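Entry: Serotonin N-acetyltransferase
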Amino acid sequence: MSVLSVLPFLKPVQLRSPRSSPTGQRRHTLPASEFRCLSPEDAVSVFEIEREAFISVSGDCPLHLDEIRHFLNLCPELSLGWFEEGRLVAFIIGSLWDQDRLSQAALTLHKPQGSAVHIHVLAVHRTVRQQGKGSILMWRYLQCLRCLPFARRALLMCEHFLVPFYQKCGFEALGPCEVTVGDLAFVEMQHPVQGHAFMRRNSGC
C-alpha cells in the first residue's frame, strides 16, 4: 500500500463547488483550495516563493533549487503544498532524521530509517501573508504526520524572532541549535507526533 493511500489529509480538498455555465452545464474549474504532497515538478514554484521570503531577511534560502528537487524526489510524502486556483501559495518540505538533535548534516540528508521529521522550510507567498496561512498549513502538516506510522516527532530550527510563532503551533524550544548558517544562530524546536494511534484508528488513516 502506498503512503499516499493511507493519508486522508493529503487528498485534494475542494472548498468550493464548480460554477455552472449559463446553459446549466457544469464547466471544469480548478478547486478553490487544495492541499497535496509536492512533486519535483513543483520545485521551481517552491523555490520562487522561498527565495522571496528568505533572501530579503537572511540573505540565503534554507533549500536551494537542487536541494528542493532532491527532497521532493526522495520523500515527497513529507512535503505539503497549499494551492489556490491551481497556484502554489504556501508549502512545507521535510525529511527524516535519525538523531535526537539536528546537526549540520541534517540540512542535506534524508535518513529513511529515522523517526524524526526534520521540517526544513515553511514559506508563504508574499501576496497571501498575514492571513494565518502559515499556522493553518503547519496544523494540517502535523495531522498528516500523525498518520505516518514511523513518525514520532517533528524537529525544526528557526531564528529567535520566529520562536513565538512555532510555540503557538505547539512546538517547544529545546535550546540553541548546533547548526549555524553563516552568522545566523538558531533555536531548535520539537513537536511530538507519537501516541496518536487512537486518532489513526478513528480518522481513517
